[in-house]
Amino acid sequence: MSDRTAPAPAAATGGDSRTVLLRGGEVHSPADPFATAMVVERGHIAWVGSEGAADAFTDGVDETVDLDGALVTPAFTDAHVHTTATGLALTGLDLSGAADLGEALALVRKYGADRPGDAVLLGGGWDAARWPGRRPPSRAELDEATGGRPLYLPRVDVHSAVVTTALLDLVPGVTGLAGYHPEAPLTGAAHHAVRAAAHAAVTPAQRTAAQRAALDRAASLGIGTVHECAGPEISDETDFTGLLGLAAEGPGPRVAGYWAEHITDAKGAERIRRLGALGAAGDLFADGSLGSHTACLHTPYADADHTGTPHLDADAVAAHVAACTEAGLQAGFHAIGDAALTAVVAGVRAAAERVGTARIRAARHRVEHAEMLTPEHIAAFAEFGLTASVQPAFDAAWGGDEGMYAERLGAERARTLNPYAALLRAGVPLALGSDSPVTPLDPWGTVRAAAFHRTPEHRISVRAAFTAHTRGGWRAIGRDDAGILVPGAPADYALWRTGELVVQAPDDRVARWSTDPRSGTPGLPDLTPGTELPLCLRTVVSGQTIFDRLNG
């Protein structure tokens, strides 16, 4: 466990003080690979074992749960979430299903007509790369569809947006900001400014409702913890502290909060602590995104004559990492392009020369997304103990020789992206997440995407991906005693209805003995593409049920 001190993830206080016996199912535990029963006492796992041994506990428990064959696993941790934006997407206009530009405009028109009282219309999820013609909606088209009302529509990657003239009118000076394009989606500072104006129109009640909707959705999917990646360029302090407060009221998923503000001294670190953040990390932008042509590359895009947009150089990274390390905080960066990752690695190395490699490793600093990794980057991640907080659904959505990555980079460069197998071989800690609302909250789908990566050489086993999406998220916040069903661990778990359990490997690189049932390796659901994903029946955090399909 890390030697740093930081706030614990926000969660409902108290938990459940009862003793509960679960039996008659399959318990995924390294303590007993054939376990069918589990005892939970005062919010922690007290025992796991066989059905016969469970009889000894029946008279001393407050409740016995008949699992009826259900699978019990640790609850998932989603290591990268934008909670309010996720909730607004759940309750707002979702264009992810629009088949073409015409359908998207029709949905905008209907959404506005159904909400005549909204000060600003909010939506997102559009991806022109999937539409015939590959053109985003123009400002004139959106002005017509909304009847001249303010509208904010970020692209699916949330690094650019199309807006109406009425929203621009709410941001004086926006036309002079970097990233303003009269006839193209806004990026950079112009995008951040219009996003701030749009979100400022959201009332406190709307914001709380959106946060609750997002946390409820997470709970319904077996997610017990989310890492909120907030910051001054993404949301605001009221939003961040309000979310932590909501999570503390419970019941609901735990929230580990990160605030992505660049700091250089102890005063800045203390400000991060006062906000209740675990670190100055998350989406502290070293660059942008591939879809919006703002990820920073060493060589130009295949479909544009530039290399993207750098936001932090190695000196700025070094100052931030050193300040965080000395204060006992986590540092972290959003870095997607290879040039951005080079700047991050160089900066971490410079910070290590200043404060010592051992302290850098102990702090468990993070890099979000980390898509265009080279072998040199991977070696540096391993050397400095950097956690790769990654989103396998990105590859599922945009990978392959015909996907957006190949369009932006060319097929050869695109095939190097998201090299999960190489990261694990090097000993780099992985934490899986969604970046919701960029891609949806979908933990089993995320595990499937890592195990069946579009580039076969980057695939990892289902077991490795599952571990990275459960225990990996806890390790990323400095906890080695959680995300696993063993005595003494927090009772954060989920019950699932699923088919036959298997030990699934992507190919013959995994030893055959480990996939044989006689090996004693705990099984997991068959996630072969096309098979039905497990259905969450109940989610429990610290012994307290936060979602329940078993009892209606």
From TrEMBL:
Amidohydrolase domain segment(s)? 63-547
Q: Which domain of life is it from?
A: Bacteria
Keyword RNA-binding found? no
Q: Which InterPro entries match?
A: Amidohydro_3, Metal-dep_hydrolase_composite, Metal_Hydrolase
Keywords from the UniProt entry: Hydrolase
- SUPFAM superfamilies the UniProt entry points to: Composite domain of metallo-dependent hydrolases (SSF51338), Metallo-dependent hydrolases (SSF51556)
User: What Gene Ontology terms describe what this protein does at the molecular function level?
Assistant: hydrolase activity, acting on carbon-nitrogen (but not peptide) bonds
Matches recorded under Gene3D superfamilies: 3.10.310.70, Metal-dependent hydrolases, Urease, subunit C, domain 1
Asked if Hydrolase is a keyword of the record, the answer is: yes
Protein name per its UniProtKB record = Amidohydrolase family protein
Q: Which organism is it from?
A: Streptomyces qinzhouensis
